[in-house]
Amino acid sequence: MSVEKNITSDIKKIKTFTVALAGNPNTGKTSIFNALTHQHQHVGNWPGVTVEKKEGTVYNDNNEEVKIVDLPGIYSLRTRSQDEIVASSFLLENTPDMTVVILDASKFERSFYLLSEIRELGQKTIVVLNMTDVANENGIEINADKLSELLNCPVIKTVASNNNDIEKLKKLIISTLSEEQDIIFTNFSESVEESLKIIENNIPKNDFKISNLSIAIKIAEKDDYFSKKFLKNEKLNEILKNISKEYKENNESDLQTKIIEDRWNYISNICKQVIIEKGNKSTSTIISDRIDKIVINKILGLPIFFLIIFLMFVFVYNLGNPIIDFFEKFISIFSTFTKETMVGHNIPDIIQSLIINGLINGVGTVITFFPQIFLLFLFLGMLEDTGYLSRGAFVMDRLMHYIGLNGKSFIPLIMGFGCNVPAIVGTRILEKRRDRMLTMLVVPFISCSARLPVFVLFCDIFFKKNAPLMIFSLYIIGITVSVIIAKILSRTLFKSENSSFVMELPTYHIPNMKNIINTSWERSSEFLKRAATFIMLTVIIVWTLGNLPIGVQYASENSIIGIIGKKITFLFSFAGYGFWKASVALLTGVFAKEAIIGTLATLLVGNSMTLTQALQSTFTQTSAYSYLIMVLLYTPCLPTIMTFKSESNSVKWTIFFVIYTFAVGLLISTLIYQLINLI
Amino acid sequence: MFNCCKSCPCAIDFSNKNVKRLSDLKIGEEGTVINVAGDDDLRIKIMEMGITNNTKVKVIKKAPLNDPIVILLRNYELILRKEEANIVVIQCQ
């Protein structure tokens, strides 16, 4: 057993090293990662969460592998958001051989906090002072030699776009890996040191590779992650309680606060020794301030934001449509070709239908999302990289906060008018799970473009001249419902998780288009890979249910869908459309909303009637309107459901998502039907 | 030590004209942090972003509806909602 262990650890030593890249958001970490690893990288998701996981490889002179892991950008190791959980638990559990901490030299003091925390873990580090060009322009210079001496670790200045700097960094990473490092970290005040010592001495045996002192610091500052792991131990829990109480009695503040204050004092002290300020504000800050004067202006701020989001909407959907049309044409040509080939080979009808309507159609559905999602990521990436996204969120936050959401939630909600799938994927711009879940849950009430044909068909028939007004009213109902539901959910299911809006306002940057295009491509391909299988599978299942038992017409009375539809018809009797054909159409609408028209046409149109006549003979004005409200609000289409599943990573929430939207739709359409009838 | 209700630093003497909540500062006003109170989660988050006692802060921007606000501290700009800035007490010059 022990021999085996030795061998594996030896192999590990010879073969691979792991180096983590850590740093605040917007420090140019991704650019450095890309430049370091270029072709040797892959992007995925961290197990269990939808936070990006980027890994790349660098080789040293002996051709040994150095694995570089790009951690999500964070400000501190405390685990609040998913990004923070991923980054912290990687540093704490996987304990990389070394951590490269990237500091924004122009915001040196702020970015140092994370560095001080990482140093306290006792891990070997290299400090990268990135954006030294911006810092210089801002009149800040940092004495790297002095900093290196104070920290006892290598410090290197870089400009991420400079290849020489990157080569130097690569060499430094490789050489430092084989060196020992004595870690000097935060100077805590005496009272804190004493308390830490007591906690340290009482920490039970554990598997962590970090020292007990490092664990003691985390426990003393009430870090969730460690508290959960160690405070089950009653003795330690008791000791911590006593120490905290005693500390509070003898000192001005509590232990937790003092630890944070000590860190900042230590940082200020280092800043005094290494920062050489040369004075004046740079032109770039002045330009940044000038842009902000307009962009977050009292009068212009909101209109500018709406305009930008409108442009984004037009950009994503209009530029996407020709590409989608192209894909669709290609798919239809392909399916005609397949059909002809199959007919030529005498393949049974049912198999033909499975391949054409199930398989090819399923693939088609999935592929058509790709251009939109890619363009969405591209636009969002540009907004984020330039620094505008934070401004948009800033400008919009007051309004969105009323309904329990975050300023950034507005963007995915608007995207929902085009298609709910990219809208749900777009919630990735929200850092906190609470904000993401809430936004994802209310997105489907925003009427997507696939529902419009249904509205147009019905309203033209039943409301003639008033059709535009009635359609408009449906959109308004959708928005109102999403606002109200958001408010309700934020007060009930998400009550315990408060959302804060403490975030950095980054300086404006010229976007790095190459990086943005790469990332958008990676993200959208990743989406396809993850969601595609589910979407395909469910499309085929619904198709199968509509076509079984063998020989029935699609979605007709005797098909499985028809039978289920009939069974649930009673639910709709108070909403005015309690006949089975309408409910079967709703069922097929879950496949894709626009399919409702097709199903109604197949089921209703007889020999002598057109669809218009058929609808007029089955619906009244009131029941037609209430049916449309149901179409607007009820369970979203399968691609949306499956995207929700892949983005939320929770089956439980997905089931809730499906059922609650159905309930909301049914409730409101029944309510409106009954109300109109009363009047 | 002060006992504090949920989010207001009530043991602070606001009768001194120069002691204000960060949320009440106008654009351009600056001062030194003398207290961060309130519930742990938010307080810790705010402190970890650098708002600790004796830090110099300045309100530099406000959103169109006056909320949230942007403050300058430790050489960078930070966005806070007013309700969050409310727990920070400032001594103005």
Task: Note down, in words, how this protein is organized.
The complex is a heterodimer of chains A (679) and B (93). Among the domains of chain A are: 12-177, P-loop containing nucleotide triphosphate hydrolases (Rossmann fold); 190-253. Chain A has helices spanning 2-15, 29-37, 82-94, 108-120, 132-137, 144-151, 163-177, 190-201, 212-220, 224-230, 234-250, 255-274, 283-295, 301-344, 349-386, 388-402, 410-415, 420-426, 433-442, 452-462, 467-491, 513-547, 560-568, 580-589, 595-604, 611-618, 621-633, 638-648, 651-678; strands at 16-23, 41-45, 52-59, 65-70, 98-104, 125-130, 140-142, 155-157, 275-277, 503-504. Chain A is built from 29 helices and 10 strands. Chain A is elongated. Helices cover 14% and strands 34% of the residues of chain B. In chain B, a hairpin with a 6-residue loop joins strand 3 (56-62) and strand 4 (69-73). Mean pLDDT of chain B is 86; it is low at 1-9. The A-B interface holds A 75-76, 78, 80, 106-110, 113, 140, 221-222, 248, 252, 256-257, 260-261, 264, 292, 296-299, 301-302, 390, 394-395, 397-399, 401, 498, 500-505, 507 and B 1, 40-50, 52-53, 55, 61-68, 70, 74-81, 84. Strand 10 (503-504) of chain A pairs antiparallel with strand 5 (76-80) of chain B, so a sheet runs across the interface.
Descriptive tags:
heterodimer, A: 679 residues, alpha/beta, seven-stranded mixed beta sheet, two-stranded antiparallel ribbon, 29 helices, B: 93 residues, alpha+beta, SH3 type barrels, globular
